[in-house]
Specification:
The complex is a heterodimer of chains A (183) and B (350).
Chain A (H helix, E strand, L loop, with lengths): L1 H19 L11 E3 L5 E5 L7 E2 L10 E5 L3 E5 L7 E12 L4 E2 L4 E4 L5 E9 L10 E2 L5 E17 L2 E5 L10 E8 L1
Antiparallel strand pairs in A: 2-5, 3-4, 4-12, 5-11, 6-7, 6-11, 6-13, 8-10, 8-12, 9-11
Chain B lengths: L1 E2 L4 H17 L3 H5 L6 E5 L1 E3 L6 H5 L1 E5 L4 E10 L5 E13 L2 E4 L7 H5 E4 L2 E4 L3 E10 L7 E11 L7 E16 L9 E10 L5 E9 L5 E2 L1 E7 L7 E5 L5 E2 L4 E7 L9 E9 L2 E9 L5 E7 L1 E3 L8 H32 L5 E2 L2
Parallel strand pairs in B: 4-12
Antiparallel strand pairs in B: 1-24, 2-5, 5-10, 6-7, 6-9, 6-11, 8-10, 11-12, 13-14, 13-22, 14-19, 15-18, 16-17, 16-20, 20-21, 21-23
Helix pairs in contact in B: 1-5
The chains are: A mainly beta (183), B alpha+beta (350).
């Protein structure tokens, strides 16, 4: 009886130790194990952002229109030391149906500070204003960089756009789209 | 000699074992927690051959022979109060300037040709999760080399008659090394350390790091200062980098320090890691009052693994649990037997 009990306990113990080492490097290629890490996410209001001209200027040629895209929060619950980047892409040109302003007329920037929680250094670098902002293109470019990460962290910032209104632009409501990517 | 094992002792072992087990299962809480705000993504599977590599648990990092297939499950989360329609796809990526950039949907590339995502669209209820699967079948004629891409989950922008709308994308990076046999080794060097003073007054240490291996690297690390004025020590300070170094690329790693530190001289030690590859270098530096000091050639030293030895801890916990279980069954059985005999429960050795 006692021998059987000890044998059972031994098998149970071996199973525990074995499960700890289930992910042994000696396993064959193509075999995977299940991960329990957390999610990296990006949140931003889905409401369209209105870009408005400076006071006294009605968005005429040679002036700029600017506005905030909406507060953006990146949550990194991966509990690691890998940094992350938030990138912005000019997905479509800005059009009112009769006139099109190219993506490259737009500048992205993050006014103020990037507020964070957890151990992370998240910054927009020099992209602080329209004057020193990031000229948009059709490809993803880094707007906010998070480094020196230790464990879970979050960052909240307010990406904004400034668009130079080119000569010949007609009046009307312009529509455009940008993409924010986090990885 | 008397060994005073009482019947309560096995119970104590079991309680300790249960507490250790619950401590071991803590990471599961992250997976079961409510989804964070907005659109989220995470990898659900990693190759057992890379169980020790933290990069392979966050990104798709693998070595694949031409003609071979790999598969990974991943999860998409909706932490918002409204249902979310999400498009899933793969896109090629590039590394430049220390930055990993995933291209737009529809941009062609080898990664896109080799991959299948199932499903390609998913509707996720508020505060819920959905699963999907990536399959990579490398073209048998693929040229050996590094291929970069991303598994992308996209919440398309809402339709609007005016203003600027925003699409959101979250992505899992893919670092695929294609070729026969084992993968090329990963390695890097820390070439120089330079003491600088930021315009805001903070001292900075800038290290030039060179990827000398055959795979891309994601750098992290810490700087420590010692042998300062009056024997002062400082740190560790976390290193910052534009995150990713492509093969053959050289980029600066910056460490921002405390404004109150004296100028020095200091013995600076920088420990950097990418996955399992760790390197350390030292140099004697002095912070200038303004601008940049000279770049000092770094001496490569043996890297200390500062992370806890988790496999050893796990083995210890497993062993303790095993001993607890064996003792429990041993004395439980023996206790019952001695009860029947009406003898004393303690065991006496001479």
């Amino acid at each position: 009886m006692r021998a059987r009990l000890i044998l059972t306990a031994g098998i149970a113990a071996a199973a525990v130790v074995g499960s700890v080492f289930a992910a042994s490097p000696a396993s064959a290629q193509g075999v995977t194990f299940t991960l329990t890490g957390g999610v990296i996410s990006i949140a931003e209001t889905s409401t369209a952002a209105a870009l408005t001209p400076a006071a006294g200027l009605a968005g005429q040629t040679g002036t700029t229109v600017a506005g905030a895209l909406g507060s953006t929060t990146v949550t990194d619950n991966r509990a690691g030391v890998l940094g992350w980047q938030s990138k912005i892409t000019g997905t479509t040109a800005f059009s009112n149906g009769t006139f099109t302003i190219p993506v490259t007329a737009a500048t992205a920037f993050v006014p103020g500070t990037v507020s964070t929680s957890g151990v992370v250094a998240a910054t927009q670098g020099t992209y602080l204003s329209a004057a020193t902002g990031l000229a948009l293109t059709g490809s993803a470019q880094t707007l906010v960089t998070a480094t020196a990460v230790v464990g879970n962290n979050t960052a909240t910032f307010n990406p904004s756009l400034s668009i130079a209104v080119p000569g010949g632009a007609t009046a009307g409501d312009y529509v455009g789209a940008v993409t924010q990517t986090v990885s | 000699m008397t060994l005073g094992f009482r019947r309560a002792a096995p119970a104590a072992f079991l309680v300790t074992g249960a507490a250790l087990l619950s401590a071991l299962s803590l990471p599961a809480l992250a997976a079961d927690a409510p989804p964070p705000p907005g659109l989220g993504i995470r990898l659900l599977e990693a190759p057992t051959a890379r169980a020790d590599d933290p990069r392979a648990k966050t990104y798709v990092v693998d070595r694949i022979a031409p003609g071979a297939t790999i598969s990974r499950a991943f999860e998409i989360t909706n932490g918002d109060n409204d249902a979310m329609n999400v498009i899933l796809y793969t896109a090629p990526a590039q590394i430049s300037g220390g930055s990993f950039s995933i291209r737009d949907r529809g941009v062609p590339g080898e990664i896109v040709n080799w991959t299948t995502i199932t499903p390609t669209t998913v509707s996720i209820a508020p505060h819920s999760r959905a699963r999907a699967r990536l399959s990579v079948h490398v073209d048998p004629k693929a040229a050996p080399g590094e291929y970069y891409g991303g598994i992308v989950a996209e919440r398309p922008a809402a339709r609007s008659d005016k203003g600027v709308v925003v699409s959101l994308r979250v992505a899992i990076r893919m670092y695929l090394s294609v070729g026969p046999g084992g993968e090329p080794p990963s390695d890097f060097t820390i070439d120089t350390l330079t003491a600088e003073r930021a315009p805001t007054g903070e001292p900075l240490v800038v290290a030039q790091v060179h990827n000398t291996g055959g795979r891309a690297l994601d750098m992290s690390g810490q700087l420590r200062l010692s042998k300062g004025p009056g024997g002062l020590s400082a740190g560790p300070f976390n290193a910052t980098l534009g995150t990713t170094l492509g093969v053959g690329q050289s980029e600066p790693v910056t460490v921002k320090l405390d404004k109150s530190l004296p100028n020095g001289p200091w013995l600076a030690r920088l420990d950097l890691a990418s996955g399992l590859v760790k390197r350390a270098a030292t140099a004697t530096i002095t912070f200038p009052d303004t601008g940049s000091g000279p770049a000092v050639k770094a001496n490569l030293v043996e890297s200390k693994d500062s992370s806890p030895p988790w496999p050893l801890i796990a083995a210890g916990v497993g062993g303790a649990l095993a001993v607890g279980l064996i003792l429990f069954f041993f004395f439980n059985g023996r206790g019952r037997r001695t009860d029947r005999r009406g003898e004393h429960q303690n065991v006496t050795q001479h």
